[in-house]
From TrEMBL:
It comes from Candidatus Avacidaminococcus intestinavium. The lineage of its organism: Bacteria, Bacillati, Bacillota, Negativicutes, Acidaminococcales. This is DUF2075 domain-containing protein. SUPFAM superfamilies: P-loop containing nucleoside triphosphate hydrolases. Residues 179-522 form the Schlafen group 3-like DNA/RNA helicase domain.
């Protein structure tokens, strides 16, 4: 049902309408903005909205004979997330409180599946939305939406972070602010939690009654593709501003130039922060996290020591511990539950063993699709087939092939044939995996870190070999020369270089939600994987 957003519309509703005292969902929309809500007192709620809400022209009422309060709570949250991913409207919604999340209720799969699909089809027919559910589910903006329904573990962590911020902001800090570290390996939902935390921080910054009122806060990430996604989210959520998202070096340099200290800085992918000066990239100090601690009252970082990709970003436990000691106050939390990969323990153990340089037989009788391929062409064809069926399936490669930032086209090449694929292309506007044409390309660690794919095909290039029953890393053949700059002060450079390459393999192998396909350039490794496949 659709009404004009007006007092007269409310007056015209008859008292005996069945939706007046039952749970319903509604969408308020104008030309560019929308608000999604649920209520059991429809007229009262609309009259309240009429007093305060602007830039909306219509009320779209959604009712269903099977609705109950748990279902409408859940479907409201789900609609908000899908509207964000649809990108038709800028959302006026604010984040939910922990008490608003409904994790389990009777017949939840029915509402999650059949009811929501029916609802979305009607919204498509009415042109309130423009993308299918599958199209939205494959978007990066959807996957780290600040409105995502968090798990109990994630909610608990979010509340602890917000409490930490509220406790530390009023305190007098000297040279260094307070530091909170969140650790977790690839795929445990770190960015989702951080996105949700930042959204709530910015809401509270605008609320007069909040302890965080008028705080100046930033979310930074030293990763171009993730930065694009966060900027996209800012465009779709009314109270988020693009100016509050930045990369670490520009923010550090600006705050030093202005001789200014801000309130809270959240850092995603903190393992990509520099731990050495890098004059080429205009960072002249010694450690980016240390500089951020000098420039904010509170710094919250998301960190995974197994995702460091450059010597100049190499983090040791001693480095982090020393910064904790320097900080005014510190806390440390961990996320542990794997969300990305729909893989059982056998698959996760196989990957862990591989990163430990042991090539074990591929797990059998698992729902996760783990395969090795004899040629790059075969693997690419298999990935293309999965992309046709599920979308968001891509080939990626270790950084073992020549690439220059000169606008030229460079290739990942099959070692036992003539097949080749363009690789490591970038776009200033779109994230790599979301561009349809990249199904014909191979991505690099820098185009895919932090993102999900449905199926990933990993090319293990010439630096990864198999000899004497073990994986061997030939660091001299790894072509990411920027990864090896900044070796000064590292006790065992050879070991550190090997760790960089193994970290890159670990990240690439953990991109796929449904499956991991592997092609090895080295003949001995390829044969071992194919034997393991048997």
């Amino acid at each position: 049902m659709k009404f004009p957003f007006s007092k007269s519309s409310m007056s015209d509703i008859k008292r005996d309408e069945d939706f007046l005292n039952y749970p319903v969902i509604y969408i308020l929309n104008g030309e560019k903005e929308a608000y999604i809500g649920e209520t059991v007192h429809f007229k009262n709620r609309m009259n309240a909205h009429l007093k305060t809400r602007r830039n909306v022209d219509y009320i779209n009422l959604i009712k269903h004979e099977a609705f109950n309060r748990s279902a409408t709570f859940h479907l409201e949250t789900k609609l908000i997330n899908y509207f964000l991913g649809d990108e038709t409207y800028t959302l006026q919604n604010k984040s939910k409180t922990a008490n608003d999340f409904t994790h389990n209720y009777y017949d939840k799969p029915y509402y999650d599946g059949e009811v929501f699909e029916e609802l979305w089809q009607k919204l498509l027919q009415q042109k309130l939305v423009t993308h299918t559910l599958t199209q939205i589910e494959n978007k990066d903006i959807f996957k780290i939406s600040p409105f995502k329904e968090l798990t109990l573990e994630q909610i608990d962590l979010k509340e602890k972070v917000l409490d930490f911020c509220e406790q530390q902001i009023p305190k007098e800090h000297q040279t260094y602010g307070s530091l909170l570290v969140i650790e977790g390996e690839a795929g445990v939902g770190k960015s989702v939690v951080l996105s949700s935390i930042f959204n709530t921080l910015q809401e509270r910054a605008s609320e007069g009654s909040s302890k965080l009122h008028r705080t100046e806060n930033y979310l930074v990430v030293n990763h171009e593709e993730m930065f694009k996604t966060y900027k996209d989210i800012a465009r779709q959520v009314k109270h988020l501003k693009a100016k509050n998202f930045d990369k670490p070096t520009p923010l550090i340099n600006r705050l030093h130039r202005e001789n200014k200290k801000v309130d809270i800085i959240l850092v995603d992918e903190a393992h990509l922060l520099l731990t050495k000066s890098d004059t080429y990239n205009n960072f002249k100090q010694d450690n980016q996290l240390e500089e951020l601690l000098k420039l904010a009252k509170v710094v919250v970082v998301i960190y995974d020591r197994d995702q460091v990709l450059k010597l100049k970003s190499l983090w040791g436990a001693t480095t982090l511990d020393s910064l904790k000691e320097k900080s005014a106050h510190h806390a440390h939390y961990a996320l542990t539950n794997q969300f990305r990969m729909q893989a059982d323990k056998a698959v996760m153990t196989w990957i862990a063993d591989f990163i430990a340089k042991e090539v074990k037989p591929l797990p059998q009788n698992t729902n996760y699709d783990l395969q090795a391929f004899a040629t790059l062409e075969e693997m690419h064809q298999a990935i293309k087939a999965k992309n046709e069926k599920y979308g968001l399936s891509r080939v990626v490669s270790t950084f073992d092939y020549l690439h220059k930032k000169d606008g030229g086209t460079y290739y990942v090449k099959e070692s036992n044939g003539t097949y080749q694929m363009p690789w490591n292309t970038t776009s200033p506007k779109y994230t790599w995996a979301e561009k349809p044409e990249t199904i014909a390309e191979a991505g690099s660690i820098y185009t895919i870190q932090g993102f999900d794919l449905n199926y990933v095909g990993v090319v293990l290039g010439p630096s990864i070999r198999y000899k004497d029953g073990k994986l061997v890393i030939d660091t001299d053949r790894y072509m990411d020369k920027g990864a090896y700059t900044g070796a000064d002060g590292i006790a065992d450079v050879a070991e550190a270089k090997e760790r960089i390459v193994l970290n890159s393999i670990n990240i690439l192998m953990k991109r796929g939600i449904k499956g991991l396909y592997i092609y090895a350039s080295d003949e001995a490794l390829r044969n071992q994987l194919l034997q393991a496949k048997q």
